[in-house]
Amino acid sequence: MRDMADLIRQAQEGDKAAKDRMVSENLGLVHSIVRRFEKRGCDREELFQIGCIGLIKAIEKFDLSLQLAFSTYAVPMIMGEIRRFIRDDGMVKVSRTLKENGYKISKARELLTNELGREPSILEIEALTELSREEIVLAMEANRDVESIYQPVAGSDGDEILLEDQLTNTDSIYEEPEKEAVLNELLVAQLLKTLDENEQKVIKLRYFENKTQCEVARVMGMSQVQISRLERKILLRLREVLK
Predict the structure, then answer these.
(1) What percent of the chain has a predicted confidence (pLDDT) above 90?
(2) What's the pLDDT band for 149 if we cut at 50, 70, 90?
(3) 53 and 111 share a domain?
(4) What is the DSSP string of 92-138?
(5) CA-based Rg of the chain, rounded to a whole angstrom?
(6) Is 105 found in the same domain as 73?
């Protein structure tokens, strides 16, 4: 049986069977990550598909020359893909102009309904608000989408809850933040292993002991300019690993 590194190498060289096997063997990883997001109002199957895209990107970009466990590299890639999806597509956004037009239309409809004793037509709303027909239709549709998040839906326990309550809160995207912290620590530990002794010392002094570049320069017996250049070089290399 080919080992993991051999399988990844062949997948990166265009071997479809190898890539399919890598994906298949790591689907459990995607499922475990998706479970952390599925109660946020998003479709589980859709999140799973997005997570698989992150997994494929991890397979394609994984650097075999690094002493880094594939799962450690893949987890933030998968999470990143899902987070971007939720951030970009999981929120209802209405422009200020549409909101203002929606308010004008609402007031006009209320006034005309009282005067006419019936629901006003688009033409009647157009005459009162001085908005174009297109502006009225766009505003009504946009604001209807926003109103729909306050519609009651059935909760998992049979109680009635608002759809708004199921939408993603981007400030607390993880249900278990302590697990995210552990994953980050594992990733940092693996990345540090890719650096030589001096590079590790620079990063630990700067980012774990919070020393300034001047203080690190004194400890390392180097100039501040040398430390600055070395730090920039290290960070650029690590950023490339995580792309």
Answers:
(1) 7
(2) very low
(3) no
(4) ----HHHHHHHHHHHHHHHHHHHHHSSPPPHHHHHHHH---HHHHHH
(5) 27
(6) no
Q: 73 and 144: one domain?
A: no
Quick one: 69 and 127 in the same domain?
no
Element (H, E) at 73: helix 70-89
Range in 38-42, 85-89, 236-240 with the lowest mean pLDDT: 38-42
Residue range(s) defining the domain that contains residue 162 = 96-166
- Structure tokens given for 61: 């970009």
Region of 41 on the Ramachandran plot (φ > 0 left; ψ -120 to 50 alpha; else beta): left
**Distance between CA atoms of 58 and 243, rounded to whole angstroms?**
9
Average of per-residue pLDDT across 125-132: 87
Count of domains observed in the chain: 3
Report which secondary-structure segment, H or E, holds 154.
strand 152-154
Q: What is the pLDDT of residue 172?
A: 39
The answer on pLDDT for 163 being more than 50 is no
